[in-house]
Amino acid sequence: MTSASRLAFPKRLKTLRRRALLVLWVERSLRALFWPVMVAALYIAAVLFGLANGFLFLSAVLLSLGLLGFAFFRFRAPTSDDAEARIEMVSHLPHRPFAALADQPAHDDALGRKIWEQHQGRMAARLAGARTGVPAPRWEALDPFSVRVLLSLLLLTGLIISGPARLAGSFLLPSWPFSGPVITAWVTPPAYAGIAPYTIAPGADILVLTGSKISLLVSGPSHPPPVRLAGAKIPDMPLDAQNFRAELTVQRSGRLTIGPWWHRLASWRVTAQPPAAPVVSLEASVQGETLTFSWKVTDPYGLDTLNATIAPHDYPKALQWHLSLPAQTDGKQKIDLTGLPYYLVALDLTVTVKNLAGVTAAAPPFPFTEPLAPTSDRTVQAIMLLRKHLALQPDREAAFGADALKLAKSPRSQIASSADLHLAYTGAAMRGEAIAPDAAEARLLQIQMEIATGTDFTQARAREDADKALLNALRSGLNGQPPDQAALQKMLDAINQVTANHLAVSSSGPVTRIISMAAVNELARRIAADEEAGKTAQANAELQQLAQLLQALRTARPISAAQLAQAQAAAAAGQALSNMLRAEAALRDQTMQGGASADPQGKLAEGLAGIRRRLGDAGYAAPELDAAQQAMQQAQSALAAQDFSAAAAAESQAIQALQKALSGLPQMDQGGSGQEAQGQNGDGASDDAPLPGLSPVPVNPADAIQQEIMRRDADPSLPEAVHEYLRRLLNLDAQ
Q1: What percentage of the chain carries pLDDT values higher than 90?
Q2: Phi, psi of 237 (to 5 degrees)
Q3: Distance between CA atoms of 145 and 312, rounded to whole angstroms?
Q4: Domains in the chain, ordered, with CATH?
Q5: CA 74 vs CA 26, 32, 78, 139: distances in Å
Q6: How remote is the C-alpha of 109 from its chain's centroid?
Q7: Distance CA 412, CA 405 (A)
Q8: Quick count: other Cβ atoms within 10 Å of Cβ 61?
Q9: Taking the C-alpha atoms of 427, 432, 435 and 441 in order, what is their torsion angle to the nearest 10 degrees?
Q10: Rounded distance between C-alpha atoms, residue 377 and residue 416, angstroms
């Protein structure tokens, strides 16, 4: 062995001895703690099986302390010799190599020293692979009957049966014969629960509603013990020198303790349970312009508020309509939809309830669509449209205010000056954003009602009611129950009367369409006769024609005999213009094929000059015909020069001008043929003698187009540019 090995070996030997000493300390400590731990485990098993109490805990503590003291007095600290013996035993080293390394030869001569060094080298080689092993307390020597195994099974069984929750509060000393504080604890549930306060015993698991108040009264100690819930300290309120009180409102679960960890006076596991939410069910239906809904609420605490909300489905920024309902568990409500601004828009009705615990719940929304309220007043229609867009896009209030100002400047129908001023004032406030959008919508509704409840509106409703009664009676005839002649005449007289009342207050205006009242009366009689004869299909077709004529009569205006003659002349000229329009279109088709000549175009231009003279004699100015005349002359010149491209373009301009002129002329609509078309009965007498002439604002495809545009404008998926274009279309006649 080298000198370097001799120097390094004692250092490793010292480390090996220290490790062996540590192993021996662990072994002897575990053996000393075996029986105290067994006693503690036995008490825990008793706790898990519900057999523990303060006296048993005290006994277990005293017995464990006694066994621990007895083990302490018998405890012998390991020495270096014990460590060497441990290493030699674990490493299976015979002949005690540690002693050989420590011994010296008896004779100090050269030969003896050399032999001894060789012997120590062999012993050192044996110690090179020595080890200390792991702690082995050899409990089987302490517990030859394997009580520890039985105790482990008891602990495992107790944990499976009761769980660790039973351990809480089981390590408290008995209050007798030891003097200690008296603890009184009680829970005060929230007022909404309707439950009286109740006491709680220490160590119990308690379930309380969130917001419950736990009160603790500690009597006896000279200093207040600490009170904690889930680790947070609860401040105490001293009552006197030896009485203390603490109160806490439970908002979360956790362990409630009194006293420090080494001396718990009381302990509870508190579980905070949030209050239950109400359960709401909703049933609803829409019939006409009325929304009817009923609700049922189930709640253990009682209701605080109940509200209904109507909101557009696809417009998150839209104004919402709210209604407070009676706080009843069972109720029914009707809503008149005519006052809402969401025409033809997908809506959601939501019923929301909040109970006395402050928990809110809502029933699944009921989807529906608000119908378009019927009205014949054009200004009311424009205001309805303004209200709708303002409710759906309140962030564009200023732009809608500008539209309201334009409408006030040029209303679409005759309205009172007060309504006009109110509309202008509201529009100015909206444009300057000096009024909230919901308040602006409410003002527009007031103006709408102010206009609608005027004289014209009342008469319009009377006409609608009279028309509806006649149409319903005739529709019943399709099912074999036609009205008798007396009842039919009574309904016709009612229509004649409301029409006459309307004409008495209506203002005159441009003649756009002529309808004979006699034709309406005769058509109704003919439908009744066809129904009696069993001609159901013919009567049904005539019913549709009658409905159109009655709709046109609702916007009738009075005209004089001279105006009637002018309108008839204009209607005849309009028929000629219609024929010319078809001829011009056919000529353009020939031109585009390269087979047209200048002569047909010249004849059409001459015919147009004659129509212009007849319209001038009837008092009608049609500037569009001047443009059509010029376009025809240009087309004639281009055809003469064989320039078919220029000729087709000019003919297209002429067609457009003729269409504009034709749309501005009145059309004769007598509703029948032969004598009925002339507005006379069988003996030549006029049935509408009190009504010299009718000029209604036509109920034409424009109304249907307007409603279709409004329906499309209600689609939130359309781009904003499309919405702008649709609104311009709806406001063309207001510009």
Answers
A1: 14
A2: -125, 100
A3: 81
A4: 3-93+130-155 (no CATH), 179-273 (2.60.40.10), 279-369 (2.60.40.10), 378-453+706-732 (no CATH), 561-668 (1.20.120)
A5: 15, 9, 13, 16
A6: 107
A7: 13
A8: 15
A9: 40
A10: 13
- On the CB side of 16, CA atoms within 13 Å amount to 22
The pLDDT of residue 676 = 35
Q: Which of 667, 515, 654 is nearest to 576 (CA)?
A: 667
Q: What is the mean pLDDT of residues 641-658?
A: 85
Q: Of 677, 661, 673, 669, which is closest to residue 695 (Cα–Cα)?
A: 669
Contacts with 169 (C-beta within 8 Å, 6 or more apart), sequence order: 202, 203, 204, 264, 266, 267, 268
d(CA 650, CA 684): 49
Q: Which tens digits make up the pLDDT trace of 279-305?
A: 999 999 998 888 999 999 999 888 899
- Across the strands, what pairs with 558? 694
- Do residues 223 and 248 lie in contact, with contact meaning Cβ atoms separated by under 8 Å? no
pTM for the structure as a whole:
0.46
- Position with higher pLDDT, 615 vs 702: 615
Which residues are within 8 A (CB) of 671 and not within 5 positions of it... i.e. 6 or more apart?
A: 515, 516, 519, 520, 522, 523, 545, 549, 677
Tokens at 142, concatenated = 């302490």
**pLDDT tens per residue, range 684-710:** 333 333 333 343 433 333 445 555 566
The single residue listed with the structure tokens 């409710």 is 391
Residue 8 phi, psi (nearest 5): -80, -25
Which pLDDT tens digit goes with each residue over 161-214? 877 766 766 666 665 455 567 888 999 999 888 888 999 888 788 999 998 999
Pairwise pLDDT comparison (8 vs 377), residue with the higher score: 377
Q: 234 near 228, Cβ under 8 Å?
A: yes
